Amino acid sequence: VKGGIETTLEKEVLQYDYSSSYFDIFLLAVFRFKVLILAYAMCRLRHWWAIAFTTAVTSAFLLAKVIISQLFSQGAFGYVLPIISFILAWIETWFLDFKVLPQEAEEENRLLIAQDASERAALLHPGVLSDGQFYSPPESVAGS
């Protein structure tokens, strides 16, 4: 940060310029986070379309940003930030597709099997009956 945090924040946020600012990459990450939290945590979506959509938007934006902007002229950070953002988007996609969604499906299947087994067990084994639970007709002699 050259010139202090306040100066840099003012330059990046208040005096936003698409060709030289990194703030839009930060907003892109916030957008991606909110969409994925909404889809997978709040809506409990079990499909890959949300991660595919956010990855496509992120990739397209970052490619356009790199082609149109002047980030590469700003030193090493101009290279690193777009590349890291691009790589993270694809790592998240891979992780969700091949690790998280199959694991959740397995857990859901295990839960359903356990619930089904417990429901059947309750019907098959009513438990031990005590002496007071046997029916005895009124005409029978006590203790017979």
From TrEMBL:
Alphabetical GO biological process terms: cholesterol transport; vesicle tethering to endoplasmic reticulum
Native organism taxonomy: Eukaryota, Metazoa, Chordata, Craniata, Vertebrata
Swiss-Prot/TrEMBL keywords: Membrane, Transmembrane, Transmembrane helix
Family: Belongs to the STARD3 family.
Name listed for the protein in its UniProt record: STR3N protein
Listed InterPro entries: MENTAL (IPR019498), STARD3 (IPR051869)
A molecular function GO annotation: cholesterol binding
Keyword Lipoprotein (UniProt): no
One Gene Ontology cellular component annotation held by this UniProt entry: endoplasmic reticulum-endosome membrane contact site
Protein location: Late endosome membrane
Main localisation: membrane
Transmembrane segments: 20-41, 48-70, 76-96
Keyword Membrane assigned: yes
Pfam families in alphabetical order: MENTAL
